[in-house]
């Protein structure tokens, strides 16, 4: 059987078009004409022997074949970019210290560390999973070079790389024990203070006139998940990386206030950027793009 080699430029145009919502937007992002992008899509359809996209109103919708190819295309492009980075910077040496918010420790950090180590085996990387306040303090004191942290609106030079919805959480296997109509204060499960999301939960409840009490306090996410799953109270978090033991609670049904989105930022120490930290920051952005829904990512 004749082997088909998919065109990398065409794959990049295909992925960019889907993420942007149109191939006209992809043309702008990639600096090419719309006709050139359309020709690359046609080339991919010829190579794969299947239709990849169809019009849906003013936007694009993937066919079944397109959904399959999109997943592979992202992985192929990531590996391509990783290989190019490794070849172009084979002598990159030094060390870099990364802090990451604990919500992303088990999901994003392994991917980031693995990619960076393969691309730059001579660079020593130190990783730290921590609470938001701790990460910001270590960035300010120069103990970390980069940190992935929630946006608390205190850093003027933070790079926002995503906006995640906030949600109320309860146990997965049963209904939460609290209802607004019951007259009892809402039991909250929260992390130890200082905690940005704990403050957000209390402020949102206060603004809506919902009485609350702290029912369980944990120093880590593991304890917060366990208490929420046990039905000890309702927690506030983003829907990213939730364990199977908890679920999102419908706000309206339980009389809970609506919630805003929460920015995710990349913080840098006051030191001048170097090639090592610049490459690591690029890998962090790509890892988040791989794991987070497009709607949560910044729009071009």
Shape, principal axes of CA atoms:
globular
| Gross CATH architecture of the largest domain | 3-Layer(aba) Sandwich
Largest sheet: 5 strands, mixed
What's the CATH topology label of the largest domain?
A: D-Maltodextrin-Binding Protein, domain 2
Instruction: Give the CA-CA distance, first to last residue.
Output: 42 Å
CATH class of the largest domain: Alpha Beta
Individual helix count = 10
Question: How much is the radius of gyration in Å?
Answer: 22 Å
Percent of residues in helices: 40-55%
How much of the sequence lies in strands comes to: 15-25%
Low-confidence sequence ranges:
none
Order of helices and strands: HHHEEHEHEHEEEEHEHEEHEH
- Say which CATH homologous superfamily of the largest domain is assigned: Periplasmic binding protein-like II
Q: How is the largest sheet built, in terms of strand order?
A: 4-3-5-12-6
Features:
DNA-binding transcription factor activity; D-Maltodextrin-Binding Protein, domain 2; single chain; WH-like_DNA-bd_sf; 3 domains; 5-stranded mixed beta sheet; alpha/beta; Arc Repressor Mutant, subunit A; 10 helices; transcription; 300 residues; 41% helix; DNA-binding; 3-stranded antiparallel beta sheet; 12 strands; WH_DNA-bd_sf
Produce the secondary structure layout.
Layout: H1 8-20, H2 23-30, H3 34-48, E1 53-56, E2 59-62, H4 64-88, E3 94-101, H5 109-119, E4 123-130, H6 132-140, E5 146-150, E6 159-165, E7 167-171, E8 186-191, H7 196-207, E9 212-218, H8 221-229, E10 235-237, E11 246-248, H9 251-254, E12 261-268, H10 275-291
Parallel strand pairs: 3-4, 3-5, 8-9
Antiparallel strand pairs: 1-2, 5-12, 6-12, 7-10, 7-11
